Amino acid sequence: MSAPASMPDWYQQGLPHIWLPYSQMQTASPPLAARSTQGSHITLTDGRVLVDGVAAWWTACHGYNHPHIRQAVTEQLGTMPHVMFGGMVHEPALRLASRLCALLPGDLERVFFTDSGSVAVEVAMKMAIQYRLNRGERQRTRLLAFRGGYHGDTLATMAICDPEEGMHHLYGPALTEHIIAPLPVDAPSTQAFMALLARHAHELAGIIMEPLVQGAGGMLFHAPEVLRTVRQAADRYDVLLILDEIFTGFGRTGTLFACEQAGITPDIITLSKALTGGTMALAATVARRHVFEAFLSDNPEHALMHGPTFMANPLACACANAALDLFETEPRLEQVATINAIMTEALEPCRTLPGVRDVRTLGAIGVVELETLGNPDKLRQKLIAHGAWIRPFRNIVYLTPAFTITEADLRFLCRTIHTVLAE
To answer: Which end of the chain is more exposed for a tag (fewer CB within 10 A), N or C?
Structure first.
């Protein structure tokens, strides 16, 4: 990968030293050079403006550069940009923790802050496993996850992603072996799931799943009833249920949290992505009361031994508090419903195009599923040429826009997808 001669000096000098994510660096197209952002627009150094259809990997739910979040960051930066969270706390983190617990269902009431979704899931895994160890159940150290699932790129989380269809199958020999099952979406698969759980419950610490949408697995949807089935099964066999709402949390599926649509409470939930409105890195793992209480002991080894250096960073917590303010003061869920209606109508013409397998929407997620997608990079370049920042992957072209996107920009994105797929 070489830098075009027309790019600025910082690009020319820095590109040879960068390792980009999810990219075969020998063949990938040179990355775009972003200069600024505003709302749903990204301005490049060459002056082009792209409409962002994926909200910075599903994070910028309030749009870029929202003034309320920017003000919160500015004020916090002038007061205390960071302080260690070991043996010390601060107002932004404690306010955020109490607000999150008030919004979450049931008795999800103990928040452990981290700085990425993958680490939040690893903490959830450690909580579930140590919950068993602290109770003397030393054989219950495995997890059950689902095919089509994705929970992160760190070593432990790779082991609970789909081992065949996921991005991490090459690492198989190095990963801890967990149990991966098909989702119980109908009577036969539910019967198989219950039989599998009956065989393995004695060695399971928990079940982990993405509620309603398996995001990086291909934007695969399932009904709320599936969540209820899994919750009931977890209760029957005394297995902790972990919901990974890193993608689905904060309105993306149409409710503030996806689990609300099933009326269930997980034992542990993980949050990130839109938590700070896409401004700074922050994640949270939130546990129910009985999970937390299993760590209370006179034995110091029963404590949760985890502590990221930048845990509960005050700047990030200030961003998250400001982002929650916007859910209270601006009509985000109503905007999601409007986005859904527009995408449902505007993406439907794609269904008749050659090579299109399915078109589906849920909340502020719109998906055009193809029979095959041989070269996602080539398709992405075509979309960029039309002025749209959309990242196809696997066999899908999808939209996850900011909730504040204008109708004109959203319809432009839908038209662009149709135009490019029709070429």
So the answer is: C
Among residues 370, 369, 366, the alpha carbon closest in space to that of 346 is found at: 366
Distance between CA atoms of 124 and 129, rounded to whole angstroms? 9
DSSP secondary structure letters along 339-379: HHHHHHHHHGGGGGSTTEEEEEEETTEEEEEES--S-HHHH
Which residues form the catalytic set? 22, 150, 244, 273
Find where tokens 């998906």 sit: 367
Residue with tokens 């008030």: 102
Instruction: Answer for the pair 117, 273: CB distance below 8 angstroms, yes or no.
Output: yes
Helix axis angle for 314-329 and 332-347, nearest 10°, is 80
Question: How confident is the model at residue 170, as a pLDDT?
Answer: 87
How far apart, in whole angstroms, are the C-alpha atoms of residue 106 and residue 234?
A: 16
The answer to whether 206 and 144 have CB atoms below 8 angstroms apart is yes
pLDDT tens-place string over residues 273-290: 999 999 999 999 999 999
Residue 235 is predicted with a pLDDT of: 98
Assign 163 to helix, strand or coil.
coil
